[in-house]
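As promised in the previous annual report, we have extended the structural survey to additional targets. Below is the entry for General stress protein 17M-like domain-containing protein.
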Amino acid sequence: MSIIDNKAYAKVVQNGVQAVETVHELHAAGYRKEDIHVLAHNQDRTDRITEAADAGGIGIKEEGVFTSIANLFRSRGDELRATIEALGFTEAEAAFYEKELDLGKVLVIARRS
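The corresponding structure token record, generated without further manual editing, is:
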């Protein structure tokens, strides 16, 4: 796995099992729990995979206050795109990843804090 230290790393996987494996690979590569985030289109699925993988949650620290508050009023797709952008990706990248999540895939993001 090639990981660039200064830029956020993202990998789209097919399911939760692959997400857990990817998180474990990132832990082995030196990423801390709070550096790794998992996103699925369904919030409950995101929470279950995050817990099973021992990844960090996404909150105000990662998103920023404005994005966190705005996400309370957004659709899930808009919320996911805003969160992905807040984690260091462009608008186009966020749109691509959100479409993958629409297809039932899981996104694993790692970035050094």
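The mean pLDDT is 86. The longest helix spans residues 16-28. These points will be discussed at the next consortium meeting with the crystallography subgroup.
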